[in-house]
Amino acid sequence: MKRLPFSKYIKTLNYAMQNTLAKESIYPFYASYKITNHCSLKCKFCNVWMEDTPDLKINDVKKVINNIAKSSIVVLSLEGGDPLIRKDLGEILKHASSKPITLFFTTNGHLLEKRPMKEYGKYIDYLHISIDEGHDNLEFFDNLELYQSYGPEICIQIVVTLDTMDKLEEKVKRIHEVNARTVVMPACHLDGTDDYYPDPVEFKTIIKQLKKKYPNTITTPSGFLDNINKPHGCSTSSIIIDSDGGLFYPCRTVGQRIFDLTKGSLMDFLKSDEAKKARRRMMDCNRACGWYQYFATDVFASPRTIISSLSPYLFK
């Protein structure tokens, strides 16, 4: 993983302190940018593929990335749909890599062997590959060594449903064997999908057991496990940007695309009255959807939990 400029870390610390003093997550640190909603799959727990939001042209994609790079965001995850569908992906990755942000890349893996991944890998810090029953690609666990040869650190993203909890350990064991990492998350119940959300108490118990049995393999932080078992455990320390540059705020569950990152400053928007009202909507929400990035990101920025949350990344 590349080192960011020292000034970036200082600014991030300042934003974290401002959030603490304000007692709300004004400034986010993680952004998921869905550079396309197109996907070769139709996972039953996902509704992204149901959307017909258009993709931006390359120049506007760069505008969005530039906007993110000038903000409080430290980690940018390029996602979809499946971002490997975009033919101009190499140019997008090269541009994003030149910015003072850590670059994640998430794919369902079905196009990995059809794309120049060793070339793409030069620009990616962490390659996240979704492998589970829902993505219909369990055979990809046989290819973990191949994926590691692409260059960046790999992290296998496992979505657990209420009927696949008992099959989780075999996946974690395989990942542990190759000294890779996994982020395990529950299948949150999204609009337009059936409910596959596992029991959060059982999920917490099993993940804590596996974290002990397979040290430094599961990156799902303990703080996330606590948060999904609270009446309200999410925050706006993380944001999602749609394929047209629209910002879902305060979140993709109860929010709307209320700001266009191709037309204005993200930082100016976050300080606006409109953004503050949106954050109140999140605080009043009792849906407890368990969406990973909204319930997990804040523990990576908290002085109380940052060491335990980062330990799987720091120790091998």
Give an account of the 3D structure:
This protein has helices at residues 6-22, 58-69, 89-97, 117-120, 144-148, 168-177, 200-213, 222-227, 266-270, 273-284, 292-296, 298-301, 306-314; strands spanning 30-34, 75-79, 102-107, 126-130, 153-160, 181-186, 238-241, 246-249, 256-260. The protein is globular, with a radius of gyration of 18 Å. Helix 3 links the parallel strand 2 (75-79) and strand 3. The protein is of the alpha/beta class and 316 residues long. It has one domain: Aldolase class I (TIM Barrel), CATH 3.20.20. It contains 13 helices and 9 strands.
CATH superfamily: Aldolase class I
| Helix/strand class | alpha/beta
Order of helices and strands: HEHEHEHEHEHEHHEEEHHHHH
Write the CATH fold name: TIM Barrel
In one word, what is the shape? globular
Distance between the termini: 14 Å
Write a concise synopsis of the structure shown:
With 316 residues, the chain is an alpha/beta fold. The protein has 13 helices and nine strands.
What topology emerges from the helices and strands here?
Blueprint: H1 6-22, E1 30-34, H2 58-69, E2 75-79, H3 89-97, E3 102-107, H4 117-120, E4 126-130, H5 144-148, E5 153-160, H6 168-177, E6 181-186, H7 200-213, H8 222-227, E7 238-241, E8 246-249, E9 256-260, H9 266-270, H10 273-284, H11 292-296, H12 298-301, H13 306-314
Parallel strand pairs: 1-2, 1-7, 2-3, 3-4, 4-5, 5-6
Antiparallel strand pairs: 7-8, 8-9
